[in-house]
Amino acid sequence: MSLTKPSRPRSSARETSEWLSTWADPLGSPRIERLFTGSDEFLSAWERFQKFGRKPMSFTDCVSLAHMEKRRVERMMSFDSEFEGLTTRIH
Q1: Rounded distance between C-alpha atoms, residue 50 and residue 38, angstroms
Q2: How far from 63 is each of 23, 31, 51, CA to CA, in Å?
Q3: Measured CA angle at 62 (ends 61, 67), to 5 deg
Q4: Where are the beta strands (DSSP E) in the chain?
Q5: What H or E segment, with its residue span, contains residue 45?
Q6: DSSP letter at 81?
Q7: For 64-89, what is each residue's pLDDT tens digit?
Q8: 88: three-class secondary structure by DSSP
């Protein structure tokens, strides 16, 4: 097995499906779910990102918070102190 993830094919639906089946669940765990960011999560994250202004919160962190909010996730495992006061961190 290769340690580097191949780039996603940009041609047929079959090739994309094969790529997803290879990389969709690399750990084989039913406890891990791959989430895709739709327009709702993106817009929520963008609003949050703009609101934070000077606080060192990345857009990626804001997307994570948007997914948590949508799915009513109350705790996250993280060593990032940026999440202090925004959610319960398990570290």
Answers
A1: 18
A2: 21, 20, 13
A3: 100
A4: 75-77, 88-90
A5: helix 39-52
A6: G
A7: 999 999 999 999 888 888 888 888 88
A8: strand
